[in-house]
Amino acid sequence: MVKVIKFGGTSLKNEKSRHHVLHLIQEMIPQEKIVVVVSAMGRLKDPYATDTLASLVGQTLVKEEKDKLLGCGEIISSVVLCDTLNKAGIKAKTLTSYECGLASKRFQGHDLLYDLNVDKIHQAFLEADVVILPGFQGVDKEGKIVTLERGGSDYSAVFIAHQLGLDEVSLYSDVCGIYTADPKYVIHSRLIAHISYQQALDLAHHKARIICEEALHEAKTHQMKIYLKSTFMKDCFTLIDHETSHVKTMGIDFDYYLLDKDVYQDDEEIFETEIGYMAKKKDSNVDSKDKFVKVHLVGCALDHEDIQTFFEEIYPIKNEKGSYFIRDEHALHTVNLLHDDMILEE
After folding, report:
1. What range does the domain containing 74 cover?
2. Distances in whole angstroms, Cα of residue 88 to Cα of each of 15, 23, 26
3. Do both 262 and 213 map to the same domain?
4. pTM for this model (two decimals)
5. From CA 77, how far away is CA 40, in angstroms rounded?
6. How far is Cα 293 from Cα 201, in angstroms, rounded to an integer?
7. Mutual angle of helices 213-221 and 197-205, in 10-degree steps
8. Cα separations (Å) of 179 from 9, 61, 192?
9. Total structural domains in the chain?
10. Residues 256, 237 share a domain
11. What is the rounded CA–CA span in Å between residue 227 and residue 91?
12. What is the DSSP string of 136-182?
C-alpha cells in the first residue's frame, strides 16, 4: 500500500524537528510504502528557506533564472531528510522533479502540474520504503525547473497522490489544522475537526495561510480527502472533503494601507471601503495610523447594526461579503472581540 504525506518547512528546519518526522515515518512502515513531499527547510532567515534564497537576488531577475535558485531549497531538503532516514535504518531514496517526470505547464497565468511518471515511483520502491520528492516545483517540456505559487508543496502532494491513484493525502506542518481563527492572535480559537472544500477555499482565497488554494481545487476536482496534521502533536487534525460543513471561522491578513487620493500601482489588488481604497502595504514608511488589518469571516457576517453597536473603526469591503478592515492599532482587541462574539456564538 502506498501513502503520500507532505512536510512543511518548519517540520524540517533542524535536527530536532526532523526527529519528529523520522518518528512519524517509522510508525508508518513497513506496513506502507511512503511518498514524502517536502518543502524547503525553515522560513525566512533560515539558510535554505525559499524566502531566504529569494533574498539573495534582485526583483528584476527573470523567473526562469530565479526558479533555478528557488528550486534548490526543496532538493536540499529532500536529500537531508533522506540522510536522516538512512541513518535510522530506513531505506529511503530521493527523486528530482526531472527524474520522476513531474511535469508543469503555464495555464491562464499559473504554473500547474499535469503529469507524473508513476512507473519511476514504483521502480524506486523496489529498493526503498520511502521515496522523497521535492514539492513546489515541476519541469517544463524542455526539462527546466519551474517553481509553483506560494504553498505549492501542498498542491504538489495532492497532485502526486491523485496520480498514484490515492483518494487521500496528509499534510504535516507546525499546526494541527484549521482553527476558528489564527491561534497566534486569537486567544479562544478552537481547532475545526472537519470543513468542506467550499468553506476551506473561501478561507484560503482570503489569505489564510494554512493551505494553498490550488491544493484545494485539485482535491475538490478529484474528490480527495485532505488531512491537515501537526508534526509535533498527535491525535489532532482537520479533515477537508466534499461533505457539507457549516463551521464559522475567520482569516486574518496584515499590512494593508489606506491609499493616498486613490493613487495606486498597477500590480496592487485594491479594496474599496467607505473611507477610501486599501491595498497591501509595500512602503515601509507608511504612517502607522493608516495601517489596517483585513479580516474575512466564513460562515457568518456582520450586519450594519452590529458594526455600529459593537465595534469601533471596522470598515466593510464593498462587493466582498464578510470582509472588513480594522485599524492596526485596534486590530488584536477587535479581532478577539469579533471572534468571540461572532465565531463562538452558539
Report:
1. 2-241
2. 13, 10, 9
3. no
4. 0.93
5. 6
6. 20
7. 160
8. 20, 38, 5
9. 2
10. no
11. 25
12. SEEE-TTS-EEE-STTHHHHHHHHHHHHTT-SEEEEEESS-S-BSS-
| Residue where a domain terminates, one of 224, 241, 258 | 241
CATH number of the domain bearing residue 144: 3.40.1160.10
Is residue 103 scored above 70 in pLDDT?
Answer: yes
Residue at grid coordinates 497522490: 161
Mark whether 192 and 310 lie in a shared domain. Answer: no
Q: Which of 181-195, 231-245, 280-294, 310-324 has the lowest mean pLDDT?
A: 280-294
Residues 92 and 56 in one domain: yes
Contact 248, 297 (CB under 8 A): yes
Q: Which three cell numbers stand for residue 48?
A: 535554505
Count other C-beta atoms under 10 Å from residue 318's C-beta: 11
Last residue of a domain, one of 241, 257, 291: 241
Is the same domain home to 237 and 325?
Answer: no
**Confidence tier at 341 by pLDDT (50, 70, 90):** confident
273-291 residue pLDDT tens: 988 888 886 655 555 568 8
Q: Which of 172, 224, 177, 182 is nearest to 206 (CA)?
A: 182
Q: How confident is the model at residue 79 (pLDDT cuts 50, 70, 90)?
A: very high
Residues 112 and 92 in one domain: yes
C-alpha cell at position 285: 514608511
Query: What's the mean pLDDT in 85-95?
Result: 98
What pLDDT score does 25 carry?
98
Give the N- to C-terminal CA distance of the chain in Å, as an integer.
43
Based on the fold, state whether residues 87 and 199 are members of the same structural domain: yes
Query: Which among 17, 20, 29, 9 has a CA at the least distance from the CA of 234?
Result: 20
Write out the three cell numbers for 24.
512519524
Look up residue 260 and give its amino acid: D
